[in-house]
Amino acid sequence: MSLALRNVSRTFNNVTAVQNINLDIKPGEIVGLLGTSGCGKSTLLRAISGLDNEYDGEIEINGQVTKEIHDTTGFIFQEPRLLPWLNVLDNVTFGLNGKRNDKEHRAIEYLESVGLIGKEKLYPRELSGGMAQRVAIARALVTSPEILLLDEPFSALDAFTKMQLQDLLLDIWKIYQSTIVLVTHDIDEALFLCDRVVVLRGQPGEVATEITIKEERPRNRGSEHLARIKSEILDCLDLSGTKS
Amino acid sequence: MAKNQGELTAVLVGKKKEQRRLERKAAAKNGVWQNIVLGSLIPAILILIWELLSRVGFFPSYQLPAPTVILEKIVEMARDGSLFGHIGITTYRVFVGFILGTIAAVVLGALVGFYQKVEQLFDPMIQAFRSIPSLAWVPLFILWMGIGEPSKITMIAVGVFFPVYLNIVSGIFSVDRKLIEVGKMYGLNSFQLVRRIILPASLPSFLVGMRSGLGLGWMFVVAAELMGASQGLGFLLVFGQNMAQPETIIASIILFAIIGKLSDWVLKKIELRSLHWQDRVVK
Ligand SMILES: Nc1ncnc2c1ncn2[C@@H]1O[C@H](COP(=O)(O)OP(=O)(O)O)[C@@H](O)[C@H]1O
Ligand SMILES: [Mg+2]
């Protein structure tokens, strides 16, 4: 599904968080929203999802302007947001419809991909932060959403799990060709996953630059080409200035 | 292959878990016994002293009879069958009043919790009524409904209503907005949001309300039966006073304590059962 933002701004009690965002996302594209914290990345993602509909401007999904929550949109939040009264398996099947058996089969498939086989009966209070986030990822992916919105989904995970789940995300993307918008503050993650990186800057946040990454997948995390883009982004974010 | 392995580990994990569960159970049992012994030590000593002092005539028996006399009284009432009549009618009143009060609280609490308009209409009034001590209604209820069962049960229901209502409303208001957003992302409509997220999330608060409601129910049944009854534990209190039988009064008090505690224990079991997912120190 395609996605387009036209002049999207969001103001909270007279304070503008993001301003004049224009963005066209093709079906099946992976777009990264990159920026320092507080520049309005989450705000923008919530507007796209329809959870927040008090923004100005227009958002089009598949050419239709809508402020509603689209039923084929999946959202992975910054926190796991598991339902504490459901065990792991029931949390994953939460968004599925149909016969219990089919739902559970599907859920177990995805729990296997996130490495949580054998943990189906545990309750959220018995999970570590990383495990809980993996359940949340399985819960979002199991519905095979056509648009997948991710808000710093891997930021709380250790480096190995993080890489593993980034690979998993790409595997799933290959099968379903979901359109993905990934909010992150991790430049390496954005460069590894995205077709295009949109850099937001300032308060209120505005688009500073857009960088298309042509490198074929699977990408080499340490490639020189990516390293060059990384320093370009760092320059754009003006982080070197604050460091010295 | 991988699947088989998964199953195998699941089985192994299951066995280990079972074993650990049993061990924990055994440990818990020891702990329970120790608690019981420790907790009843001082009461046992006090009862012993009381018995001795009564026997030597330190407490005059027309004011404070010995524990054995009270026990005899209970046994005697049990033998002639009147005990079960008293316990039965009192429990019945509390039970029916509790159910009615809880139903009213659930209906009103849910409406107030979910619809802002209903909240604006009803909540201020309910808050105002709440500041009236519920016992003050007694004369009015008796005037309206006479001295029979309806007025007693209504009183108990009124007593139960407020704690249950207040807890339901605050439970619904404090449901995590973030979890509701999860439900919305999966396209749940309002009804499904209520059933699948808001109700389970506010269940803990509801159960807290039920337990304190039940406590008030027991308090109110005493008041109701003191006002006029021909049977019931509260009636035994008045009867004992009129007949100058302190052992009847104390027997009734003890019976109140026992069945009050029992009913609370049942609710607590239900609470532990349905809230096992909660992350808290198990009491
Ligand atoms: N619900 C809200 N009410 C008021 N201000 C908000 C709200 N949500 C976000 N903001 C403000 O908008 C700005 C951007 O926030 P956010 O989108 O969360 O940033 P990011 O995700 O990029 O770190 C911040 O200054 C934040 O304080
Ligand atoms: Mg954020």
From TrEMBL, chain A:
Alphabetically, the GO molecular function entries are:
ATP binding; ATP hydrolysis activity
Q: Which InterPro entries match?
A: AAA+_ATPase, ABC_transporter-like_ATP-bd, ABC_transporter-like_CS, ABC_transporter_ATP-bind, P-loop_NTPase
* Domain ABC transporter span(s) in chain numbering: 3-227
Q: Which UniProt keywords apply?
A: ATP-binding, Nucleotide-binding, Transport
Whether Iron counts among this entry's keywords is no
One Pfam family from the record: ABC_tran
- List the CDD domains: ABC_NrtD_SsuB_transporters
Q: Which domain of life is it from?
A: Bacteria
Q: Which PANTHER family does the entry link to?
A: ALIPHATIC SULFONATES IMPORT ATP-BINDING PROTEIN SSUB 2, TAURINE IMPORT ATP-BINDING PROTEIN-RELATED
What is the name of this protein? Sulfonate transport system ATP-binding protein
User: What organism does the UniProt record list as the source?
Assistant: Saliterribacillus persicus
| Phylogenetic placement of the source organism | Bacteria, Bacillati, Bacillota, Bacilli, Bacillales
TrEMBL record, chain B:
Q: Which residues form a coiled coil?
A: none
Q: Which PROSITE patterns match?
A: ABC_TM1
Cellular location(s)? Cell membrane
Residues spanning the membrane:
32-53, 92-115, 127-147, 153-173, 216-237, 249-267
Provide the ABC transmembrane type-1 domain boundaries.
83-267
Q: Which GO terms describe its biological process?
A: alkanesulfonate transmembrane transport; cellular response to sulfur starvation
Q: Does the keyword Membrane apply?
A: yes
> Is-annotated flag, keyword Transmembrane?
yes
- InterPro entries referenced in this protein's UniProt entry, alphabetically: MetI-like, MetI-like_sf
For membrane topology, the record states:
Multi-pass membrane protein
Q: Which Gene3D superfamilies match?
A: MetI-like (1.10.3720.10)
Q: Please classify the protein's predominant subcellular localization into one broad category.
A: membrane
Gene Ontology terms: cellular component: plasma membrane
Protein keywords: Cell membrane, Membrane, Transmembrane, Transmembrane helix, Transport
Q: Which family does it belong to?
A: Belongs to the binding-protein-dependent transport system permease family.
Protein name (Swiss-Prot/TrEMBL)? Sulfonate transport system permease protein
